[in-house]
Amino acid sequence: MADSSADSADSADSSDSRDTSGEPRWPAALAVMAAAVLPFALPTELNLVAPWVLAATVALTVAAAYVARRSGHQLVNEWLSYAAVTILTLGLVFGLTTIVVTLPHHTEPAKELLRSASVLWVSNFLVFATWYWRLDGGGPNARDTRKAHLEGAFLFPQMSVMASGGNGKSLAEATGWRPGFVDYLALSLYTCTAFSPTDVPVLSRWAKLMMMIQSVLSLGIVVLLAARAVNIF
Fold first, then answer.
1. Do 81 and 65 meet the contact criterion of CB atoms below 8 Å apart?
2. Cα–Cα nearest to 48, from 6, 78, 86
3. Spatial separation of the C-alpha atoms in residues 223 and 100, rounded to whole Å
4. For residues 74-112, b (16+ Cβ closer than 10 Å) or e, as one string?
5. Residue 190 and residue 185: Cα distance in Å, rounded?
6. What is residue 107's three-state secondary structure?
7. Which of 138, 143, 161, 126 is nearest to 39 (CA)?
8. Fewest C-beta in 10 Å: which of 64, 95, 184, 215?
9. How far is CA 53 from each of CA 39, 50, 59, 187, rounded to the nearest angstrom?
10. Contacts for 120 with CB less than 8 Å, ≥ 6 apart
11. What is the DSSP string of 154-180?
């Protein structure tokens, strides 16, 4: 009987461990590194620093963040992650600002302009996805401590749809659902293409502000390309 109780306790502990296990970080790290190598496809004048400097700095920061998390230094992990995304954001803003300023002078051939705009659009998509993932609900470290994602800056469908036979519980609460990086990646893509949220309403002011900025950046790229195409600039 005692052995049975011990086995039950071990089983419960194992179940709790699974429920609160951390989400994989590699999708976010892959997105960050992809955004870090994209500047290699940009003209020199659109890069804030040399592409290899940016890529090396981001890679070292991501590696240090991984080590900090594995060693239990969650706060250090978070600040290093913020640093990596901030560096990428500065590079993105610099590139977009420069392309807007130089566009009327026709200094860049049409093909090069199209490639540069495409690179900056993809960077916009990846960088903001990482910001949403890093900030929502206190970030991944905070979300890992909860059995389910019940509140945050975004209202995912799983948080509002009632589970079948769940006694009034949402699908997230009934199944222990928590958003992963792909969910924020999709949200960022919707914002870049539709210039607004689609199936994920925005609840917090900081998230609304960030989505406004992302939409303006994405719309600006599209408008500039259209204007160049009809020779307005």
1. yes
2. 86
3. 11
4. beebbebbbbbbebbbebbbebbebbeeebeeeebeeee
5. 9
6. coil
7. 126
8. 64
9. 11, 5, 10, 30
10. 42, 46, 92, 95, 96, 99, 221
11. B--HHHHSBPTTSTT-BHHHHHT----
Three-state DSSP class for residue 202 = strand
Q: Tell me the pLDDT of the chain (233 aa) as tens digits.
A: 444 444 444 443 433 433 445 789 999 999 999 999 999 999 999 999 999 999 999 999 999 999 999 999 999 999 999 999 999 999 999 998 888 887 766 666 777 888 888 899 999 999 999 999 999 999 999 999 999 999 999 999 999 888 877 677 888 998 899 999 999 999 999 998 887 777 889 999 999 999 999 999 888 888 777 766 666 55
Q: Look at residue 99 in the predicted model and tell me its pLDDT.
A: 85
Rounded distance between C-alpha atoms, residue 53 and residue 66, angstroms: 20
In three-state secondary structure terms, 94 is helix
Please report, as a single letter, which amino acid is at residue 207. A
- Quote the CA–CA distance of 147 and 20 in Å, as a whole number: 6
Residue partners of 159: CB distance under 8 A and separation at least 6: 149, 150, 151, 152, 170, 171, 172
Dist CA 201 CA 181 (whole Å): 17
